[in-house]
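Biosynthetic peptidoglycan transglycosylase
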Amino acid sequence: MKAFIVRSLLILVSVVLLIQLWIFSSLVWWRTNPVDTTMMMRLDYWSTQSKPIQHEWRDYDQISDYMKHAVVAAEDGKFLQHNGFDWAGMQFAMERNKDKGKVVAGGSTISQQLAKNLFLYNKRSFMRKGQEAVATWMMERMWSKERILEVYLNSVEFGDHIYGVEAATQHYFGKSSRSLSREQAAFLAAILPNPKYYQDHRDDRKLRYRKGLILKYMRYSHIP
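Tokens:
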């Protein structure tokens, strides 16, 4: 029995170490190479293989600055100040969730969201949050803020099987992400909390309110 427990622990530790090595090697490769697919894209594709993933990589300077400002304003106002974790933001989110009796705020930074999109899955668990923290810690020390935002904009979900700002801009506006207007950028940033729902409910009251806030605070957001 003791030998079985020891063997099981060794197997578990080996699997955990292999996962960390996979994440580390992926981050090394993606420092200079485009991210063609993420774990979230794979899960989406496997769930509905008959529908192709819409995704096109665009370099940082090929994406409208309006979009960068809108996403930072909407998702992570302290993006340039923190090292991957906004502790004050997480505390505020926990207090809001406690007051409401349900999850109404996440508190995750752009870096944390990107780590989840690249390597993990949506289902909440302590194990997933722990691995997300490790991946975020590695990413923040291996990539520049510009690279993190560039990959985030190219991999975040904007609708059903729609990933990255270029595919989203083509889908919603029939144009390139380089030429996004301020209003269009605010709309795309506003749908991020629930893109598959807002894709078909573009006149939703909450969406319009969120877009208005983003337009208001875009000018104050700082980007790499």
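Residues 2-30 form the longest helix (29 residues).
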